[in-house]
Each structure stands twice: as C-alpha cells, then as structure tokens.
Amino acid sequence: MDKDIDKLLSYSLDQLDEKEKADFENDLGSNPELEKELLDMQIILEAVALAEEPIKPSENLKESLIASLETATPFQGYVERFMKTFDLEKKNVEELFNKIIHSASEILEPCGIPKTSLYYFDGGPKVAHNTCGIVQVEAGGIFPSHQHRGKEWVLILQGSALDSSGRHYHPGDTIVSDENVCHSFRVGNDKDLIFAVILEKPNKWLIGRILMDYLFSAWRFKKQ
Predict the structure, then answer these.
(1) Residue 131's beta-bridge partner residues?
(2) pTM reported for the whole predicted model
(3) Is 172 left (phi over 0), alpha (psi -120 to 50) or beta?
(4) What is the rounded distance in angstroms from the CA atom of residue 161 to the CA atom of residue 137?
(5) What is the number of structural domains in the chain?
(6) pLDDT band at 119 (very low <50, low <70, confident <90, very high)
(7) Could you tell me which residues are beta bridge partners of residue 116?
(8) Cα distance between residue 157 and residue 42, in whole Å
(9) What sign for the dihedral angle of Cα 104, 109, 112, 118?
(10) 131 and 32, same structural domain?
(11) How far apart are the first and last CA of the chain?
(12) Which residue has the higher pLDDT, 130 or 45?
C-alpha cells in the first residue's frame, strides 16, 4: 500500500519519468479504484496548498526529509528498473549510483574513445555472461560508428544525445539494439552523457564511418 501511495504522490507532483508516467496512466485507465485514490490524493494536496495557515512539520519529519535529500542520488528514479534489468539487489544498485555520483573520477577509466570513460561492474546471475558497464561521454563528444555483434540494452541516466539515425536520447530512455545494428551518436552540449549498458558481445568499430563522424559531425548529426 505504501508503494501505491508513493506512486500516486509522485504522479500527482509530476515526478515520474516518461515511461513510469505512461505505465501508471495505463494502469489508471483499467483500475477505477486507483483512479479514485488518485482523485483523493489530488484533493488532499490541493487542500494543503490552499491552507491559510502553514503547517509546521514535526522535528522528526524535518530530520527525515533532510536525511533523504542528503542520501538520494540524481538517479534514484531508476533504481527499480536497474534492479530488474541487471538482476541486482537494491543496495547494490544504490551503492553503484553513489559511486558514479561521488567517485566518478576514480572509477571511470578512459577506453580509447575520445572524451569517453567506462566502468565495468558485475551484473546478477541473469546477465552473468554479458558485459555490464557505465559509460560517460563528455558534453559535445561523439560515440563513433559501431556495429552490434549481439543484442545491446541501454538506459540513459543523464544528459542527451542525437543518434546518426535522427533519434534523440534523453534521461530515462531505454534503447534496445539488435545484432548487426550500426549507428553512432553525438552528446548534447549542456551536460555529460551517462548511460548503463549490457552487451552480449563486443562491438565492431567501423573505421570508415568513424572518420565521417568526426570530420563531418555537423552533417552526420544534424537535427531531424
């Protein structure tokens, strides 16, 4: 029940990412009881917002809120999805996210691609035979042309990018690429791109196309 209340509150305050919001609205359309609970939640929130006298929180509540803000990471909304995909326990995912936030310069290592760093980690039993990693590409950087030799799963955690196919990537996007798919992408100029990835097999780098990526980037990654 607490989980349902959290989801109702997050939806009412517009704190869900696009996929979570779509999933919730899909459940909402087939669940009259959930719809009623949402209406009740919104009435309560409106009443609180319009209250004439501010409600003074208890000291315990204040301390709890401050503690939660101090321990939360920018990727907190992706914990459950990360757990399911990488077959990891919640504590392991939160530890990994905290490493990325607080110790990125220590754990991320250059991987031979300009402006790109990588950190490998072990996934759970379901993905034990795959390569799992966190990739960071600096703002404005290019992740050059490559061909997938196996299936790939990606979750965007931070930043944005434009694919050579014209697709735009944003935080919360899940990208599944099948074997033999070829592409490259350029990161937006506002923030470094950080994404989690699962690879069945190592990528094949396409040298000729890579030269095109760097020499003609304005043309290769023009907005569609």
Answers:
(1) 199
(2) 0.67
(3) left
(4) 10
(5) 2
(6) very high
(7) 137
(8) 29
(9) negative
(10) no
(11) 44
(12) 130
